[in-house]
Amino acid sequence: MLKVINIKVNGIDREVAVQEQESLLETLRNRLGLTSVKKGCEVGECGACTVLLNGKAIDSCIYLSLWADGQSVVTVEGLKSENGELNYIQKAFIKEAAVQCGFCTPGLILTAVEIIGDDRIYSREELRKLISGHLCRCTGYENILNAIEKAKGSKING
Amino acid sequence: MYDFESFYKVETVDEAIEALEKQDEAIVISGGSDVLVKIREGKLAGCSLISIHNIPELKGIRLLEDGTISIGAAQTFYEVTNNELVRRYIPILGNAVDQAGGPQLRKVGTIGGNICNGATSADSASTLFILNAQLVLKSKKGVHTIPINEFYLGPGKTIREHNELLTEIRIPRKDYEQFYGHYIKYGKRKAMEIATLGCACGVRLSPDKRKVEEVRLSYGVAAPTPIRCGSIEAWACGKELKKDFVELFGKKALEEVNPRSSWRASKEFRLQLVEELAKRALIQAVTYAGGEIDA
Amino acid sequence: MSIGKNITRVDAELKVTGEAKYTADLVPGNALVGKVVRSTIANGVVKSFNLEAALQVPGVIKIVTCFEVPDCQYPTAGHPWSVEASHQDIADRKLLNTRVRTYGDDIAAIIAENDVAAERGAREIQVEYEIYEPILSTKEAMTPGVVDIHKEFPGNVIKNTEFRVGERSYEEIKEAEEDAVEVEATYRTQAVQHCHIETPISYAYMENDRIVIVSSTQIPHIVRRVVGQALDIPWGKIRVIKPYIGGGFGNKQDVLYEPLNAYLTTLVGGRPVKMEISREETLACTRTRHAIEMQTKALVRKDGRLIARQFAAYSNQGAYASHAHAIVANSANEFKQIYNDAEGMQAQCFTVYTNMPTGGAMRGYGIPQGAFASECQADDIAYKLQMDPLEYRLMNCVKEGYEDPHTHIKFRTNGIRACIDKGRREFGWDEKREKYKKQTGTVRRGVGMAIFCYKTGVYPISLETASCRMVLNQDGSLQMQMGATEIGQGADTAFTQMASETTGITEDKIHIVTAQDTDITPFDTGAYASRQSYVSGKAVKKTGELLVKKILKYAAAMVGMEREQLRLVNNEIVDKNSKELVLPLETVATTAFYSLEHSKHITAEATSQCRDNTFASGVCFAEVEVDIGVGKIEILNILNVHDSGTLINPKLAEAQVHGGMSMGLGYALGEELLFNQETGKPLNDNLLDYKLPTSMDTPDLQVGFIELSDETGPYGNKALGEPPAIPVAPAIRNAVLHATDVAIDSLPLAPQKLICEFRKHGLIQ
């Protein structure tokens, strides 16, 4: 049975009819066309499906869409500015060669948005813990950490 | 798409209890990080769900008048770890649940769900055991409170009746005041892990910090359920903080556990960890309490 | 000049915005769901099915079983096809199989309206089996009298090969060398999985009487051929499209479920059918890195000079042949090539069917296993002689100008000693080796190293062919199409730089078409063997040169000059001698399109058949801290130094090395597919229990390069994609040996094993 939920997706209020059994991952991909949200394991172990729910990174594969009713969701599709300019975190990922196959990338960028959004300063070890819910097989995390450090630095230093 | 038959979302505890009375087979889902995975695996496929996700009544961490810390069952791991009261009075718990799964999971997985799963590997369990946590269960018949060490019955089995809901976890002041503890999760990786062994140890030291006034030791995965080590605790009472004491503490821990061999870890391996982690957790707890071994 | 520049990946922006389209992002909304029904035994025969209940499940459209598929066996390895029957891959499976050869074997398939219906349907299918004992090890499989897994291979041995270097056998040499020290050990590696984050996925539909398959594959042109073979239909009736893919690492260098997917769409009148392989299926039912047991002996003189070695390897192939003997043959070659035996060496290799999941290609292709044996052995020898293992390697490792006596591949540029020297300095080998000499206590530190060599591509074992097409646009920009595939490694960017280097057209004006479509894309066998920058790079160069000739010829005619007088530099036609502008390329291109006298669409296309090869090489240095009481290894420092020729894009090259090192760390410390020893059922077929390294398990990864321009590479380059994964595990193992004096001879160095070994050696009382 379809149920209507109201969610703010990338800043826009959306009214979406979803199945009770649907995960947020499926709603975002299949009903809203937000295919940056990737499916990698379906059980919350790889992080490819990460989205920001009210600003916090969660695995959308193990989150029911009905629960998102009344909440706000951000995917990387929502990070570009209106004139098409990339967010500085996206730019940092490009500059630091933190992108390879690109499958874990959207999720990691969203976790980076959360990390960079708070005003705390993190050590590299703390950053490792903060991104530990994402598995990446291409990069050894090295350039991803570099990108997040650079982006954080550029935010702090204006 | 998840394979469940029906989904009933409630907004209050009373509604949840009402629903549980009506639906004999229904399963309570809170954060979903465990139940949804089991549905996908097929273990719970076709089930009926009662969703208590984000019920306001089950949220929040409060300091009650008598000093008891009350944690709402639907607090996520993330919320527990980052709570001011937890940081100040029971940092061991915040630290323990900050090791469950990964960061994204900790923002949806709840402490109540972690307990109600009945898993011996639950990251909250050993710590709540040494904090003498009290679990508040609510049903049509009313509210009753039981100590956590009576809650677990076997793998995946708890004393919670189908029509009961875990609403809060209480930690009395006497159980955390002047009490310092440390939890070690032993996993094969540093994140995204299920504990091979979990060990929590807490101490209350004498005013001169030379003796142990009270020790509490508990384990996850050292037996079919989380366990407290009563005999060693009794033995350790009043002991001086000497190296020999630490060594014996590790050895004696072996007498109270009953780990099994599984493909995840052999019994011998777990026993080695039982001894080693007991010592390490003890030393760390003593350090937190301001003491020093062989000072 | 574009080679050696750190240009931004051409696909980076699409990937950080989520706009890059992967297979799952393109599936039509009306696609049906295809799902494999898997056996719940590891060895036996399907006797019958009861499908009644399953067919009643709402949404289940069709069920096809192993009794109904075409009686046609096909191979799956992503190798170039051989026109000689004796060199063809083993065709040992059908689309669905009656003979069950592994737990989770493909015995039936369901087509349903959606996932839930497909899952429910699968659960309702009842299967009657004739059950045999599961055979999980090569030893069991080779026991006389054991049941044959494939009737075509009685005794379960797929292939048994031997070779020898030198005149005399190992035993003869041993007899003659009375003073020699002998070191004997058996080294074992485990089965691991690629764990690309995008699981295999495809969808297939029909256009008229042709089948279109969109798939996450490294090898679209090979998929076309194998689907044709599996369905026994003309290859031209099949069209394969490869969009962006979320990693492959060799698993997608095998034809996985594309043939079954193609078949399923034919059963529903050509409606699109999607087959999405779950993570659990990916781990247990696609391909793995072969577990190999390697029995070794070595004879050395007391001064450290290696005299002779012997190597006997048993490769656990699992249920189906896939890449089969090519893997362990590579292990033996690595063992042979990396050291110089004063007198000789000999090797024997077996590839054996078992009821384990099928071993296939995985980054390094047998070399990581061979290097584990050769590098553990090197350290065991040095340990026995009380010699610095680095000095041992310098004394004995492969020499300048080496030529393999069997394959005749030459080490054209040999940077291995330079890599060792560079690593030695930057890592601080001598100081650390000294500092950690006599470690005591419960936490100990040590350093270890390992070296390797790796040939580039598959010549002369197999065909090496690649092609490229360049099409000039009106504005002087270029479309470039490659049969070679971008799989995350950065191929599209490297090809863009190569094209720019050769044509003189700047990178921003080169538009590489990333997707392959076998109807459109020129032929190339795909991404494997670290071949593309070398082999397909030659095609770029050849095509680029051809295109430039055509452009200059046209330009020369426009201005009445000789072609030879002109050059194309930075999008301008210039005078060769004066360097002065003759015409902007844009003017030439526009004129060529629209000239009323002489309209010509300037394009170039070329095939490059590569009949050359060379070795890449490198070294890994690791510094570890071993916490004995809990069996844990902490990596304090790790450095890879690579000899991969000229780097096309150093920043991306470094990133490739990071990924390989991370894969090596997983191989060393925790990854291992586990199975119930009684039933063969997979135990850890998920990313919680399969220990892929997380960010917290990965230290900072240090990378260095020695750049020797290799004359055989199109731009001085040679293999890089796979090498970084090779030396890490043995380097860590050797560091643990240094720290603890305990030689662990099998992978992974997981805590339970370490505890057990430490206890055996008295480190734990």
TrEMBL record, chain A:
PROSITE patterns (alphabetical): 2FE2S_FER_1, 2FE2S_FER_2
Bilayer-crossing regions: none
Pfam family, one: Fer2_2
Domain 2Fe-2S ferredoxin-type: 3-79
Gene3D superfamilies referenced in this protein's UniProt entry, alphabetically: 3.10.20.30, [2Fe-2S]-binding domain (1.10.150.120)
Keywords for this protein: 2Fe-2S, Iron, Iron-sulfur, Metal-binding, Oxidoreductase
PANTHER family, alphabetized: OXIDOREDUCTASE WITH IRON-SULFUR SUBUNIT, XANTHINE DEHYDROGENASE IRON-SULFUR-BINDING SUBUNIT XDHC-RELATED
Protein name (Swiss-Prot/TrEMBL): (2Fe-2S)-binding protein
Automatic annotation (TrEMBL), chain B:
Transmembrane intervals: none
Gene that encodes the chain: xdhB
Pfam families membership: CO_deh_flav_C, FAD_binding_5
InterPro entries cross-referenced by the UniProt entry: CO_DH_flav_C, CO_DH_flav_C_dom_sf, Diverse_Substr_Oxidored, FAD-bd_PCMH, FAD-bd_PCMH-like_sf, FAD-bd_PCMH_sub1, FAD-bd_PCMH_sub2, Mopterin_DH_FAD-bd
PROSITE patterns reported for this sequence: FAD_PCMH (PS51387)
Keyword terms: Flavoprotein, Oxidoreductase
Domain FAD-binding PCMH-type: 1-176
Organism: Aequitasia blattaphilus
PANTHER family to which the protein is assigned, alphabetical: XANTHINE DEHYDROGENASE FAD-BINDING SUBUNIT XDHB-RELATED, XANTHINE DEHYDROGENASE SUBUNIT C-RELATED
Superkingdom of the organism of origin: Bacteria
Protein's UniProt name: Xanthine dehydrogenase FAD-binding subunit XdhB
Automatic annotation (TrEMBL), chain C:
Record-annotated Aldehyde oxidase/xanthine dehydrogenase a/b hammerhead domain positions: 17-133
InterPro entries listed in its UniProt record: Ald_Oxase/Xan_DH_a/b, Ald_Oxase/Xan_DH_a/b_sf, Ald_Oxase/xanthine_DH-like, AldOxase/xan_DH_MoCoBD1, AldOxase/xan_DH_MoCoBD2, AldOxase/xan_DH_Mopterin-bd_sf, XdhA_XDHase
GO molecular function: xanthine dehydrogenase activity
Top EC category: oxidoreductase
A Pfam family it matches: MoCoBD_1
Record keywords, A-Z: Molybdenum, Oxidoreductase
Record-linked Gene3D superfamilies: Aldehyde oxidase/xanthine dehydrogenase, a/b hammerhead (3.90.1170.50), Aldehyde oxidase/xanthine dehydrogenase, molybdopterin binding domain (3.30.365.10)
Keyword Oxidoreductase part of the UniProt annotation: yes
EC number in record: 1.17.1.4
SMART domains in alphabetical order: Ald_Xan_dh_C
Name used for this protein in its record: Xanthine dehydrogenase molybdenum-binding subunit XdhA
